């Protein structure tokens, strides 16, 4: 659906050249919610703005539905852009226009006649749950309602792709959840491909199927959300993952725990199906060990759950060995933790 090849953006300022995006290779499949996460200055906004040519790339290509947008000009580019809707952190609404008039705006630009515009606006108002607020002005709306207008406006011309640039960063946690839920519903109902730029890991966790991590203008890691969460490779990714499930400091986790007289301390990592199963209770019924849970965290993503648990597996050396074998067969990663 979207293919980025060797994508680069260099900004030339008076004093220096800033490589905001460097050598990005990315594939986003149709119907996917794809998250791009990174700290401030990583290049996320520049990258997403190149997906609809709001920012022309310095080099590389941006293919959307088989068309290289970097090769299009004038009318052809405007038409291709109609397939790509966008929403923004600060909504970018027209303050002198009502909700209905804001939503109608892209339809006017596209030359849709009045009767058709009214029907479409009515549909969109229903889709984003703003019935009864059609005549309100943006200043009379809450942040969540403003973003609903932004979403309806972005969807007016029935795009195939929705770009979300920090779309929930200005909202409180509850409103964030309701907007994320709306985006998920739209993705499922309309089969829309969604690209979400964020610096918040819980946004990725709650809605995204895949994630790419950006640092210094490049994509340093990417893959299915569960894989990246469970086995982060880069330090920056580990930092993001810790925001939601892992302990602040792996060592601190085991601090204050005395070395067991018998058995082993183990860190169990659950992912996908194993996270939803009573593996530990089955283990103690199957193998001659006791399992004492010392710490545990579990997080849920759209693709399943994952988490870690620090346990003391108590038993004879042979039984503990069997317990590790049992866990491996059950699809749970078990790693011995040493405390001195
Ligand atoms: N128009 C511009 N001119 C010069 N430098 C720019 C311009 N736009 C962005 N940059 C620089 O490019 C780099 C990436 O910026 P970008 O806004 O894409 O990052 P970001 O990850 O979206 O961060 P933030 O969330 O803070 O916007 C930064 O160093 C920024 O200063």
Give structural notes.
This protein is 36% helix and 30% strand. By secondary structure, it is an alpha/beta fold. It has two domains: 2-243, P-loop containing nucleotide triphosphate hydrolases (Rossmann fold); 255-336, 2-Layer Sandwich (Alpha-Beta Plaits). The strands form three sheets. The chain has a six-stranded mixed beta sheet with strand order 6-7-8-3-9-10, sandwiched between helices. A four-stranded antiparallel beta sheet has the order 2-1-4-5, with helices on one face. Helix 5 (143-155) packs parallel to helix 6. Adenosine-5'-triphosphate is lined by residues 11, 13, 18, 20, 38, 40-46.
Topology pattern, helix = H, strand = E:
EEEHEEHEHHHEHEHEEHHHEHEEHE
Strand order of the largest sheet: 6-7-8-3-9-10
CATH superfamily of the largest domain: P-loop containing nucleotide triphosphate hydrolases
Overall 3D form: elongated
CATH class of the largest domain: Alpha Beta
Blueprint of the fold:
Layout: E1 2-12, E2 17-28, E3 33-37, H1 44-51, E4 59-64, E5 67-68, H2 74-81, E6 84-88, H3 99-109, H4 114-127, H5 143-155, E7 161-165, H6 173-190, E8 193-198, H7 201-207, E9 210-215, E10 218-224, H8 225-230, H9 235-244, H10 250-254, E11 264-272, H11 279-286, E12 290-301, E13 304-314, H12 317-329, E14 333-337
Parallel strand pairs: 3-8, 3-9, 6-7, 7-8
Antiparallel strand pairs: 1-2, 1-4, 4-5, 9-10, 11-13, 11-14, 12-13
